[in-house]
Design goal:
Elements: H1 2-11, H2 16-24, E1 28-31, H3 65-76, E2 84-88, H4 110-118, E3 122-126, H5 146-170, E4 174-178, E5 183-184, H6 191-205, E6 215-220, E7 231-232, H7 236-246, E8 249-253, H8 264-273, E9 277-281, E10 283-285, E11 287-291, H9 297-308, E12 315-319, H10 328-347, H11 351-359, H12 363-374, H13 378-388, H14 397-407
The chain binds L-rhamnitol and zinc ion.
């Protein structure tokens, strides 16, 4: 079937082997926080706030670093290719040394560095500006109180240093992404003051230049959160303008826009003006609900644009969702594989033919080709990719995951 599929694609001018090579060379950053419902290991029983909410109580979540690592290993054995791990600051190794967030250093992530080095995984990183008493009133980097603001500035500075140290240790740049929850539930009198403070805080955080071979700074925008429905300081326009002015990487989260707004359409504009993008591939259902990524039109649209813009080398793909209502290993695995499948379908599109039709003004043929492309046997190519990378086929996943649930997760009841 694979050989036949290859021929079919070749007739449309598509080189399947080169699509597979590109897919294999495109890492996806696996977000560690799906494994324990964004709890982290700084404070056992920490409560999630700041507009973030994880719903569900499926048994078996990771309760320690060891369990989280065990689960991530399982996921990596089910996902083809070589990927990256996306860590939040609250996932440090605090077994022997628990410090405040503005005193964190790379030592707290040394065991992650070793763990990832053994597995040839790069690491991405995030300051954690939530789940902390100093974030409880809803503001961090834009806080009116300069003492609280400085605390979070120092935390982000430490995180950049940690990101750079990790990137240097692993020989692969760490994307260090800043997201803050700051915003208002209701009518806000002086939005400008909050945004001006955020701008100044970011300027301080980024004041020390870091080698881009070790650390790449990213900033993540948002439309609204629970409890910040009316006003979000770090809106899309704010960070877009900041990223253009300061040439930072902009992080687009698929759940952070109006439900009918196309994130895919933003990509071709952004790559013209900023050096890099970070994607938080997610799935909002009615709101920024962070459902597990699936192979839907939204995910496909995003990947298609990355390929059409030839932007894969400048766009870092990560996932961001947290679903506690299903098996967490399955949530991670299905999301990773869905993102890869969307990318593969995009790589296999008969782009030259479609573009030629467009250039000739033949929009009839262009539409027909887009439709034809949907019927091409990409599933056969995906199966071959899984085979070559020695991971289960689609139909084998659930059984493998249920086995793990039986033998490992079900023993974790508190
Ligand atoms: C929140 C942002 C942010 C978080 C993670 C945990 O709306 O999407 O990326 O989900 O940092
Ligand atoms: Zn996000």
């Amino acid at each position: 079937m694979f050989e036949r599929a290859k021929t079919l694609y070749a007739e449309l001018g598509v080189d399947v082997e080169s699509a597979l090579a590109t897919l294999a060379a495109t890492p996806i950053s696996l977000h560690c926080w799906q494994g324990d419902d964004v709890g982290g290991f700084e404070n056992p029983g920490a409560t999630l706030g700041s507009g973030l909410a994880v719903t569900g109580n499926y048994p078996g979540k990771a309760r320690s670093l060891d369990e989280l690592r065990q689960d991530i290993d399982k996921v990596l054995s089910l996902v083809p290719g070589r990927h990256r791990l996306n860590l939040h600051a609250i996932y440090g190794d605090f077994t022997s040394d628990r410090v405040e967030r503005d005193e964190l250093s790379v030592e707290h992530f040394q065991s992650w560095i070793e763990w990832c080095r053994e597995r040839s995984l790069g690491i991405d990183f995030n300051p954690t500006c939530f789940s902390h008493p100093k974030a409880d009133d809803g503001f961090t980097l834009s806080h009116p109180d300069s003492g609280i603001r400085s605390f979070w500035i120092r935390h982000c500075q430490r995180c950049r240093e940690i990101g750079a140290a990790i990137g240097a240790a692993l020989g692969s740049p760490t994307i260090t992404n800043i997201w803050i929850p700051d915003g208002m539930k209701d009518l806000t009198a002086d939005r400008l003051a909050f945004r001006r403070r955020l701008e100044h805080s970011l300027d301080e955080i980024f004041h020390v230049p870091l080698d881009p071979a070790h650390c790449i700074d990213a900033i993540e925008s948002k439309l609204f959160g629970i409890g910040s429905e009316t006003f979000v300081v770090g809106s899309h326009e704010f960070y877009l303008a900041y990223a253009v002015k300061n040439q930072k990487a902009l992080c687009l989260d698929a759940g952070h826009f109006h439900p009918t707004e196309s994130m895919a359409d933003k990509i071709s504009s952004l790559v013209l003006f900023i050096p890099r993008l970070l994607l938080h591939v997610s799935r909002g259902v009615r709101w920024d609900s962070d459902h597990v990524v699936i192979l839907d039109d939204q995910t496909l649209g995003i990947m298609r644009e990355l390929v059409a813009c030839k932007a894969l080398s400048r766009v870092h793909i990560g996932l961001d969702f947290f679903d506690a209502s299903i098996n967490r290993i399955a949530a991670w695995t299905l999301g990773m594989r869905a993102a890869q499948k969307a990318l593969l379908i995009s790589l296999l599109e008969p782009r030259d033919k479609i573009s030629a039709a467009e250039a000739a003004g033949d929009y009839t043929a262009r539409l027909a080709l887009f439709e034809q492309a949907k019927c091409l046997p990409w599933g056969v190519v995906w199966a071959e990719f899984c085979l070559r990378h020695n991971v289960p086929q689609e139909g084998e996943l659930i059984e493998t995951i249920k086995d793990y649930e039986q033998s490992v997760l079900s023993k974790r009841r508190a």
